[in-house]
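Anyone else keep sequences and structure tokens together like this?

Example one:
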Amino acid sequence: MAVSRRKFMTSALSISTLAAISTTELISALTSSASAASPAGDVVGKISVGYQGWFAAIGDGSPINAWWHWAANWGASPSPSNNGTLRAWPDMSDYPAKYQTAYANLGSGQPATLFSDYDQSTVTAQFASMQANNIDTAALQRFNPTGGEGPIRDAVTARVRIAAEATGRKFYIMYDVSGWTNMQSEIKTDWTNKMAAYTASPMYAKQNGKPVVCIWGFGFNDDNHNFTAAQCLDVINFFKTQGCYVIGGVPREWRTGVGGSRAGFIDTYHAMNMISPWMVGAIGTIADSDGVYNQFTVSDQADCAAHGVDYQPCVLPGDLSGRQRVHGDFMWHQFYNMCRAGVAGIYISMFDEFNEGNQIVKTAATQAGVPTNSGLLSLDEDGTPCSSDYYLRLTGDGGRMLKGQIALTATRPTQPVVGGGGGDTQAPTVPGNLAASGVTASSVNLTWAASTDNVGVAGYQIHRNGAVIATVTSLSYTASGLNPSTAYSFTVTATDAAGNVSGASNTVNITTAASGTTNLALHKTTSESSHTQTYASANTVDGDANSYWESNNNAFPQWIQVDLGATSPITQVVALLPATWGARNQTMSVTASTDGTNFSTLSGSNGYTFDPNSGNKATINFTSTTQRYVRLNITANTGWPAGQISEFQVYGTSGGGGGDTQAPSAPGNLTSPAHTSSSVSLSWSASTDNVGVTGYQVRQAGAIVATVSGTSYTVNGLNPGAAYTFTVTATDAAGNTSAASNAVNVTTSAAANTNLAAGKPTSESGHTQTYSSGNVVDGNANTYWESVDNAFPQWIQVDLGAATAISRIVLKLPPSTSWGARTQTLSAQGSTDGSTFTTVKNSAGYTFDPNSGGNAVTITFTSTSQRYVRLNFTANTGWPAGQLSEFEVYAS
């Protein structure tokens, strides 16, 4: 069982902790303006909620088949005598699947039931509640996945992706390393082999264009987090090399290295992209919140700003069982403190943490919704009636204050019960089909479909990068005053006369056109042939002409390259050296590429003089061309035996000459007519353009993998049994790029010798004692499933996750000779939907013999595409039950 984080944060705020903060530091922090190191994204400027997703029930079909986290003894039904850490009761009204407990009935007389996160309907209902309350992002908790809880955690992750994509919520993986002995190696393997694939989802959270991953537990000064600073830094750097934006869940004393934080970790903390200090168990009153603001938040924010790190402190509703909530005032005061400090983002601890009483998900509002013999409190515990969704609504309003959509206020605007006076409480429907067109260097046209409302829609709020920039009554708006070559995100919400606000529309992402004076390379990604000492290529796009790149010495030729992020029309490269350097001549050429692989020459090799008396720069002009990757090749330097550049600037054509600025229409009807274990075939409908379509960019997880002129393409070199997401965009001769086509998700066929069932969700007709169905996919032939005795027929089933071609099943029993030979009579069935099954192998007797064949049998049949594979047992000569230790399914 995972350890509660509460146990790590029980000490009170101390005078000694405050003493560790110098007076100079505190005054400096109080007088510094706070700002995020990064622009608004999926975590900066957003509300993120911690999503445990760790509840299950016996009979839910999950691999664990236990009352996971609902009870002290997971093998027995939850009850007053079998309550481990349950501190509140959920409002069960939104959940289609319910599981009976051993508690007495609710105060209303209804049965006391609980939910399971193994049910897709549960996860989708919870994500829908996030959508309804404008909660942006969910951080899915992932504890050590290498043990017995691994299969169900994998299954819940898949369900979170489906729910996020259905509701338009972003999600990311948040590793909790508590008690994880072999964390340093196993977390890397888990990311590479399993979790990285989820970044292909269009709803996987990105910040600064990078997939977000959080690691909770580095630097805590306790025996459950025995990791050195070097080990933690190694893991952080691993994720950075994987292209990730790394958040650290750290102790509240991270900056001072005292109390709950290990000493000597400050450089490790500063290596993170975002720091998120933990507060559960440390505060429980409004006075505590003010103490944290004065002792930690202000100085933490200043330290992060000084080191280019984003800051995401926690806000929590309070432990309901400890009567900490004060009908929402405790939580709102935290929102107020964090927003007045100017934090980059806020992390809610937690969405569904019923084990610590800090959940914001719908909770029993009154004792009518609580089992009569449980002793648990309801949301009205202090005498103030609160609706079951009150803390979801409160979180939504806290997010509005963070984003500047409502004014900063210490007075809670959220009413505990909506519409107590009988007024209109129903929000308009979400605006539909938000689209962008006519993108220029400084503006974009937006259109959307009308919302409806029970009374009437009063207007529409236009959101740019999360902040409201205009309110209109029409179904279109032109956003002007934008910066050239800049990425923007837009959404629209509807309002009514009562002030109700709808959920957000779909998000439209655009990048404005370049102007002739815009350096397209500024702050973009670079690469290089080499560098010496600390003089890396990133120095050439930092806007500082005093920092520079220098290649390896005495090793020409050398090169430096910038990725503009998207294909853009370009006409000029400008190279600079520091203004104080002496004159020199460097021999250079310019090449470029649209795909990063195939380069063409834009300007041939020539000598260029850098002279401090004329700006110490070289300008290289060439015919306008549309490119994404621009490379400067250097073969000689009279001033030093290496390539040297301080600023690498790339410029496009002027936007003021009346050129073509209209992008093609989006390609339509993207489909995948075929795939193999290493390739996916794609086809789509042609785009149109006011001048003419010149080609199509095929994108894998958003990255361009090919540019073609036709309307079909086959992507090769893929991994077997892997999930991929593809889109296509169209381009024209002016470099305009269309919106993306619909996304197509494809899982390549498995290799012939890949066990498709390994680690997948299972279900069963029943089991005896602890011998549940999850044992047959754990890769351990010594653990096994055994059905209910003397109750044939029985069945066991595996969900492969997607319809896949299969033609072979291997069944095993423990190989020990203590398991004598036996014959089991069984048949095999398959289904694509989990409801309608067809027979793939008729019933027959199969002999399992430890002395012949390793106590395993192989069943072959004609290849068929199935998702759910079921074995039906009707007899067993060795024991009056179905028995199986491994259930393996293969393509061939």
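And example two:
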Amino acid sequence: MSTTSHPFAPEEVMALLDGELSTDRVQSVSTHVEQCPECSALATELRGLSRQMNTWEVAGFPERLTQQITGGRLGKYVGAESLLSGEWKHRRSPSTKFAIGVASAVAGILLLLAVSVPNLLRSRMAANEASAVGSLRILNTAAVTYLGTYGHYPPSLQSFGPSPIGKATEEAADLVDPFLAGGLKSGYRFTYLILPAEGRDSRGGYRITADPVEPGTGGMRHFSTDETGVIRLGNGEILGGGSPEKVRGQALPVVGDPETTRLAAETGPMIARTAELKLVVAKFDEARQGMDRVLTQHQGYVAHLSASAEGDSARILSASLRVPADQLDACIAELKKLGRVTQELQVGEEVTRQHQGLTARLKSSRNTEARLNDVLRQRDGKITDVLDVEKESARVRGEIEQLEAERQILEHRVDFATIDLRLTEEYKAQFNPPALSVLTQLRNATINGLRNASENLSGMVLFLAEFAPTLFLWSAILFFPARLLWRRYQRARAMGSLLRV
């Protein structure tokens, strides 16, 4: 049947019989089938074919084949399943052993922590106590410096700290770090108490206590000090030996007393002067000789000098000169004559307060050393106390030498001004020689390529030599677990295939 004589295809007739035709075409197709003999015959043929398919049945298996499957092969499959189940149960033991090993490792780590944590706490407490003692010494020195500058002790602990405006004032003298000025540092809380002045010439006093924030964890001992500079324990004993009666009434001499203040006022402020001068010179060698002549004339010296001349570029000389402070202006005037000035800068830094602070700390340390030497000469304490005093005396002696060196450096900066001089030769372009030939450039490129290849090869060899043992070790460790898992996976996959059959 063709669609040229029939408006509907045979597939649409089949869809009508199967109930798969859309509702909008069911009426038209069914009407055509009733009116068209050929389509009606096709529908009858299709209905008969459908009834035949419904009545068709598959023939059963022979009885002999069924007995062989149920009696023989299936028994083997069941045995294989039982064997695999027993093997899985047997394979559970490595997991148990692994769990026991992990538990043993955790127990060992906990035991190690139980032994090491107390030692770490003791070390931490000892470090915090040493830091607290050092902070008290710093505060004593800062109090002496503050007294020498402003004529009285600081009214609070915040007065020791840095200034928010960047300049030291009476409210913030910038003598200690902000943590110590805040009262908390290294697990200790510092409390400052100002004592009123008694008598006409008394400057008053102060008392500073250092207590652990977390007793038993951050520290055990309590410390205190006062204007005498002596550090005591919580029970009143002096740290490092001695007794309170030996030092009672021995106040620390202060470098900021009226006599020292008067001498500082007479000498005037201490200024460390620094100058920077850059010149462009036409004759470089003559300028170098002129610089040496100026230094000799003004009794100066060269602290640092470097000269450079690369290729056809201009020669450059950089030097750090030291000349007496009173000869600085005359020396700069002479140096300007050597060439054309491109930059000039002069800076003056007042270091009077720094010098007074160093002098005060130095005098305080010397007085402390003298008292410690008196205790050593008496030797009426225990051997351990004497050894502690000797150790403290050695520490104070080292501090004195360091302070003396710092003061000498500061005084040298004041006595000798610094001139940072830079001489640059006027650049004159020169005719460059011809470039290298092509063959030479090719040869150089080949050599560089071979050098890079050898470096890469040696780098690979070094990498293998460094990491190959580690990779081999981890491969050996992971090989057996990976192999075991792979075998289990293969067996489970084979068992699944057998059960599906």
